[in-house]
Amino acid sequence: MSEKTRVAVLGASGRMGATTCAAVESAEDLELAARVGRGDDVTTSVRESGVQVAVDFSVPDATEANVHALIDAGVHAVVGTTGWTAASRGRVAEHLAEANAGREQPLGVLIAPNFGLSAVLVMRFAAQAARYFESAEIVELHHPDKVDAPSGTARHTAAAIAAARADAGLGPMPDATASGHDARGADVDGVRVHAVRLRGLVAHEEVLLGNPGEQLVIRQDSFDRVSFMPGVLLAVRRVPSRPGLTVGLEHVLDLG
Ligand SMILES: NC(=O)C1=CN([C@@H]2O[C@H](COP(=O)(O)OP(=O)(O)OC[C@H]3O[C@@H](n4cnc5c(N)ncnc54)[C@H](O)[C@@H]3O)[C@@H](O)[C@H]2O)C=CC1
Ligand SMILES: O=C(O)C1=N[C@H](C(=O)O)C[C@H](O)C1
Fold it and tell me: For binding (S)-2,3,4,5-tetrahydrodipicolinate, which residues are annotated in this chain's numbering (predicted)?
């Protein structure tokens, strides 16, 4: 039998980190080699335990520094933490290019705004549908302990809708609002995003697309954090064979 891949989890005591630790421990081909939390030195933790792949579910303020530390330590990274921007992703891509020059086994970093299959499909279907509708808005609904809004998934969905609209030559959406702009949600790339925080929820997203006389609603619900685990484990298994930066789980799923 081939050797198990040694995995570290960053943010190990958090909601997603704890669920990921349990999923790694249950996987026959993976070994949980390190649990890393706030205040731990990432480089030392992963080096001392011979980690090959690290999963980051920490906090938006820490995730970029964690990923740079993992690259410096020669460890592949799977990242689910939110807070990434084009600029921070660009810095990681640059760091990877430098680190991989001359490396026999180049490093990979996979950042996914959402590891749930239903959410990945909502993003895909919304991008496919966007060109056919005058209006598109997003409602994301989460547990009230979430620190960031709008969600990373909603931001990614809005960017995909905006790109599809631009490709199709669509202009701004119709909106006669003259007062009360605060009630219209956040503007993400020209798409309105509404964030609900409600006790009892986990993670949910609805994309509303409208035309004269018709509406399309695309919705997904993550009722439990186990919904993210097949995607996380797939990413852990695939990232060593994807050198450089990959953004989005869709790239390792066979979505056609
Ligand atoms: N991509 C995806 O599929 C998903 C992404 N998320 C994202 O994952 C992140 C974590 O979410 P939760 O687990 O709900 O949050 P949480 O608050 O329960 O856990 C975060 C953990 O990170 C720890 N932490 C803080 N600073 C750290 C550092 N510098 N290094 C390592 N750990 C550190 C905290 O002490 C805490 O234990 C959020 O950004 C959330 O939006 C959440 C669910 C799914
Ligand atoms: O904080 C969460 O819970 C989630 N965060 C991610 C996001 O912001 O999109 C993914 C999922 O929505 C759960």
Answer: 143, 152-153
Residue 152: HSE in the Cβ half-sphere, 13 Å Cα cutoff = 22
For domain 5-111+226-251, give its CATH number from 3.40.640.10, 3.30.43.10, 3.40.50.720, 1.10.10.10: 3.40.50.720
Residue with tokens 């749930």: 116
With a Cβ cut-off of 6 Å, ligand 1 is lined by: 10-11, 13-17, 36-38, 57-60, 62, 66, 80-82, 112-116, 152, 228
What is the topology classification, in CATH, of domain 117-223? Dihydrodipicolinate Reductase; domain 2 (3.30.360)
List, for residues 165-205, the tens digit of each pLDDT value. Answer: 999 999 999 999 999 999 999 999 999 999 999 999 999 99
Complex ipTM > 0.90: yes
For residue 175, give the nearest of 185, 165, 166 by alpha carbon. Answer: 185
Q: What atom in ligand 2 is closest to the CA of residue 15?
A: 3
**Entry pTM:** 0.97
Please give the pLDDT value at position 255.
82
How many C-beta atoms lie closer than 10 Å to residue 165's C-beta?
A: 22
Pocket test for ligand 1, best of 13, 59, 151, 204 (most atoms within 8 A of CB): 59
